[in-house]
Automatic annotation (TrEMBL):
A GO term for molecular function: DNA-binding transcription factor activity
Every HTH tetR-type domain range: 17-77
Alphabetically ordered keywords of this record: DNA-binding, Plasmid, Transcription, Transcription regulation
The UniProt record lists the keyword Manganese: no
UniProt xrefs under PROSITE patterns: HTH_TETR_2 (PS50977)
UniProt DNA-binding residue ranges: 40-59
Entry keyword annotation includes Transcription: yes
Name of the protein in its database record: TetR/AcrR family transcriptional regulator
Species for this entry: Paroceanicella profunda
């Protein structure tokens, strides 16, 4: 993991990097439980097994921890969705949809923490725009490889729509069983059907033409 830009001191040794990872993991759990305002640096230090002085050495204030977690989430989204986009051309639409749903399910807890921290971030608008651009860029790349005949404006609109469907997956995972499983299956079916229709579409077709038939 690269050192977050908000850190006061970047760890150079493996032990220091492991300590920072423990701090970030503890902070994510406490932010998820208590929110940004309710979390304290002393509680994060105690939960991570870190001396308070060492915590402040790496992260001089609570906002630096939040910034580091937001940066880490953006890096993970970029890496995971980018990897899926890179291999997507070799997958069928149902296979791609299944892997996409699995990815969004895995991101669920980190995404929930990131969304909560965004509300307290000093640059929330810029961070949201950055995340949106990252995700739409990777989905746009998927569609460019799978449906090269789509005009760029339509491809961009389709990428935004597919992302909105995929973002429902982490919310579905919070529902009680078996509804959580059923909702994820429906999201997967929607993604697969939309991908297949886009791949077969002509420039004049509407994405949802024929969905009801």
């Amino acid at each position: 993991m690269s050192a977050p830009k908000s850190m006061a001191v970047a760890p150079k040794r493996r032990r220091g990097r492991e300590r920072v990872e423990a701090i970030l993991s503890a902070a994510a759990q406490i932010f998820a439980q208590k929110g940004y305002a309710g979390a304290t640096m002393s509680e994060i230090a105690r939960s991570s097994g870190t001396a308070v002085g060492s915590l402040y050495r790496f992260f001089p204030e609570k906002s630096a921890l939040a910034d580091a977690l937001l940066s880490r989430y953006a890096e993970r989204v970029d890496a995971d969705l980018g990897a899926l986009a890179a291999r997507s051309a070799g997958l069928s639409a149902p296979e791609l949809a299944a892997q996409w749903v699995a990815l969004m399910t895995d991101l669920g807890e980190d995404r929930a923490v990131a969304l909560a921290l965004l509300d307290a971030s000093r640059d929330a608008v810029d961070r949201r725009l950055h995340l949106r651009a990252l995700m739409r860029g990777h989905v746009n790349a998927m569609l460019a490889a799978r449906a090269p005949g789509l005009p760029a404006p339509r491809r961009a609109a389709a990428a935004a729509l597919l992302l909105h469907i995929s973002k429902a997956v982490p919310l579905a995972a919070r529902e009680p069983a078996p509804l959580d499983r059923d909702l994820r299956a429906e999201a997967q079916n929607l993604l697969a059907a939309a991908l297949e229709r886009l791949e077969a579409a002509t420039p004049a077709d509407n994405l949802f033409t024929g969905f009801a038939h």
